[in-house]
């Protein structure tokens, strides 16, 4: 069966290639659109063509009854009935084969293949009818089979959905077959067609067949035009539906995006509202903290001020009554109050400068062992004054102990931690109060731990972080001398925030003691620098005697007190209240000054920069020291970047030490003073 199918398919291909193309055809589509139309046309007509093939085959077989009836009635027809039946059965077999071929998927998917099957089926039916017309005797040919040829022609043009090109090709084939069949009948059965009543049948049959061929071609042409227009309409509708679908999808995406945008907008609005609320809460908290800070600062500053005010009248009376012992006691009390006031002001300024971001850390390799040894004696003395013992545990030599840190920051942190340990000692301990500084190194980390057996800190305060808030004091029952300012740990926290890779750990138990562990990164021992130690204790202030100092200060009280302080140290000081007075006095100086002291902010929008310029133009390169009550960073002023600067309030010891640094002792220094 497969071999027969292959043979028929080759025959159909040959027939299609033999039929010539026709120019009078509906306009074809361009490019791929034509192929899409042909495939659609073929797929749509495939079921109809199968049905037409089945109906045609059954109708064809039904005429076997007529054949038997005619054979029974006429001896001439009975003589050829066998050949008639064989032709009918042979054609029916071809119909069955063609029907089986139409069942293949290719019949709906391959236009050329389907066209060949349709043409083959049509030609099979017509050729079989032509053969029967030739076989049967006269007058059966003109009575039944000429009419059958017309019926078959009408059927093939109307039932198989032929396109115009197929119709034209089929019409040409049918015309040739019709001419041959009619010519054969006229020539082969001439004696029967010589009768007058039989002469019109061939001519009428030819006219009928010609009419059917022309009408069939026209009908197929119109059907193809309608099919093409219908295809265009369906395709346009499909495109419109696709456009609508795409627009719907786009609208859906837009709606989803809009919904997402709405959600994002709502989320952002909620985030903005939450941020505003958080900022408001934080601002209110900062405002409360600031108010509490100011209230605490004012309260703590009033105490030493009140003490200073209180001793003034008794001190004046003791001086007038020449009561030296009472005057000394009151003067000592005043000095203690002034020292407390200075400590509080310095701490407040420090915490303000640290939190404002004006102070920057300068990490460098530091020999921590040398730094601690330079401070150990002072810490031991400080602890001994409070009846406490201080111990220091360091790694044994020659193990290095070098850290990467800011030496000034590290010094301040250790001083505050040790000062707190001494302040919150427990004098009631049977073994006495003690504190230890334990230093060790593990890999690339240095750890310095300040341990004490003091009164300890409640765990709730540690969890809340309250002990690191400014002016917070965990044990307010301490005496006024031990109470302090409440800024030590707040300053430690602010300093650690500026030091990278520095951390502070805390463990404490109430009534047993506390342990503060400071960790910092280690550094290479070869890169360590010398670290600053404690300031001078003032034993060499005699080297300052005879120095010629120029002072520029607009505040009368500060200018007069500073002039008296310098005079008490044996220095000669000329003071000026403004830059104009200073510039006016420069040409008349009896000798070149040793050092110039200047406040930063002066009247008339002048500053220490103007004093420095006038000094260099009028005298030359003279050492200069700047001090001010402002919190700005003088290093940002190019002219003052290399000058030492002190911030008010300045203790006498600090000022004198700074002068010693600027004006070191000279072998030929004397006490010569200008006249």
Report on this model:
- The protein has 675 residues and is of the alpha/beta class.
- It folds into 3 domains: 2-244, no CATH class; 362-527, Histidine kinase-like ATPase, C-terminal domain (Heat Shock Protein 90); 541-662, Rossmann fold (3-Layer(aba) Sandwich), CATH 3.40.50.2300.
- It is built from 19 helices and 14 strands.
- It has helices at 2-18, 32-73, 75-102, 106-109, 111-135, 140-159, 164-188, 190-193, 196-320, 324-356, 368-385, 407-423, 459-464, 480-483, 488-497, 556-568, 579-585, 608-618, 652-662; strands at residues 364-367, 388-393, 402-405, 433-442, 445-452, 503-509, 513-521, 548-552, 572-576, 595-599, 601-602, 606-607, 624-628, 645-647.
- The protein has a 5-stranded mixed β-sheet. Strands 9-8-10-13-14 form a 5-stranded parallel β-sheet, with helices on both faces. Strands 1-3 form a two-stranded antiparallel ribbon.
- The model is unreliable at 15-22, 530-539 and 669-675 (pLDDT under 50).
**Total strand segments:** 14
Main sheet properties: 5 strands, mixed
Q: Level of helix content?
A: 55-70%
How many angstroms separate the termini? Answer: 145 Å
Computed CA radius of gyration, to the nearest angstrom: 61 Å
Which spans have pLDDT < 50 for at least 5 consecutive residues?
15-22, 530-539, 669-675
- Beta-strand content: 5-15%
Principal-axis shape equals: rod-shaped
Number of helices: 19
Please state the average pLDDT score. 80
Strand ordering within the main sheet:
2-4-5-7-6
Structural class: alpha/beta
Number of structural domains: 3
